[in-house]
Amino acid sequence: MELMEGLTLLSTSVENNASFFCFLAFLSFIILLASIFLTILCARDCEYGGVFFGIILTIVSLVLFFICLDGANDLPKTVYKVTIDESVSMVEFYERYEVIDQDGLIFTISAKEAP
After folding, report:
1. Are 9 and 82 within 8 A, CB to CB?
2. What is the pLDDT of residues 59-109, one digit of tens each?
3. 6 and 40 both lie in a single domain
4. 1/25 same-domain check
């Protein structure tokens, strides 16, 4: 990606939260297995309250598992640290870039996604 005139590039990095979502997916999968096991044990012993709890926990952990898998598939985002020259139109700047953080005159930005 080419930056607009008047921006001075200080650094570039790639942000990716996939490892966090993979950990959550693994955790929800473990909870899913445990809830299925709990449901089977309670059904065998005719404990209907435990079966109901196990079914609800199974559904919730299954939904959480698929949400986490979807989050793990997000594409990494390139982030730029830049300084802005006074010649830059801030209106045009905010139209083209998403400002993630500002530390004095140093802006952390990423390109806005095309609609």
Report:
1. yes
2. 888 888 888 777 766 767 888 999 998 888 889 888 888 898 889 889 999
3. no
4. no
